Amino acid sequence: MAGDYGRPVLVGVVMALVVVGVLGVWVFLGGDFGATQDVDHIVVALVTPDEDGIQLPQVMAHYEFGTAGVDMTPIDPDLEVTLAGSSYTKLKDSYPFGGGDLLAETWAEASGGEVPEWIVVTQEAFLSLVGDQKIMIDMPADAEVFDGAALFSFESGKAEYSGEEIVALMKGVEYLEVNDRNLVRLQLMGEIASLLSVDGGHTVVRTSLPDDLLATWLVRLGS
């Protein structure tokens, strides 16, 4: 009888030792029970006012992290979509109705993928990121944009522009030929990713990411 009572105790001790061993290996390998589960893909968007003052995503891209690093795929804000209960038909039109959440959901539905986490760079954040720096853009065509207060001229070819000039350009980017505006957006997305990474989170952006994953992704955007 004494031996029978001892078996459960022995089994319990062995199981406890196994659990402790597993926990030890987890900690040794850098495991953190308080860590947030990683996110392998996000959407980044620059949101600025259009010519009517409506805040819309003017530049967007999907970033995916894998074994080979980070892959960036441009997203056309003018992509045709269906917005339930609305007559609007462009991806960017989802933002005024539901912010970054609806923007991400609408893109996921249109692309057939999972709903990504998101980072939105507002006009204020963009101007803060740029500061006194200039952004190099190779304009594929001439463009003139009136932002409601001043007329901005953009000549074809490479030139450096201030943050304010880029914001003005975004008000008229949709009037460029499709290929031309896609080229402008692609260049600007690269600059935004670099600015976010260098800034390291000092500038406040809108995001669905928790602080630790935002920090992780800011590093990834610079890779």
Structural class: alpha+beta
First-to-last CA distance: 66 Å
Widest β-sheet, arrangement of strands = 3-2-1-4-9
CATH architecture: 3-Layer(aba) Sandwich
- Domain count, please report it: 1
Estimated radius of gyration: 24 Å
* Biggest sheet record: 5 strands, mixed
Share of residues in strands: 15-25%
Task: Give the overall shape.
Answer: globular
Note the run of SSEs as H and E.
HEEEHEHEEEEHHEH
Mean pLDDT: 88
Q: Count every beta strand, where a strand is a DSSP E run of 2 or more residues.
A: 9
Helix content: 40-55%
CATH superfamily heading = LCP protein
Which spans have pLDDT < 50 for at least 5 consecutive residues?
16-34
Work out the helix count.
6
Given this structure, which CATH class is correct? Alpha Beta
Enter the CATH topology name.
Aminopeptidase
Q: What's the helix and strand layout?
A:
Elements: H1 2-28, E1 41-49, E2 55-66, E3 69-75, H2 95-111, E4 117-122, H3 123-130, E5 135-139, E6 143-146, E7 151-154, E8 157-161, H4 163-172, H5 178-199, E9 206-207, H6 211-220
Parallel strand pairs: 1-4
Antiparallel strand pairs: 1-2, 2-3, 4-9, 5-8, 6-7
How would you describe what is shown here?
This protein is an alpha+beta fold and 223 residues long. It has a single domain (41-218), classed as LCP protein (Aminopeptidase). It is 42% helix and 24% strand. It is built from 6 helices and 9 strands, in the order αβββαβαββββααβα. Strands 3-2-1-4-9 form a 5-stranded mixed β-sheet, with helices on both faces. It has a two-stranded antiparallel ribbon with strand order 5-8. Strands 6-7 form a two-stranded antiparallel ribbon. A hairpin with a 2-residue loop joins strand 2 and strand 3. The protein is globular and about 45 Å long. 27% of the residues are buried.
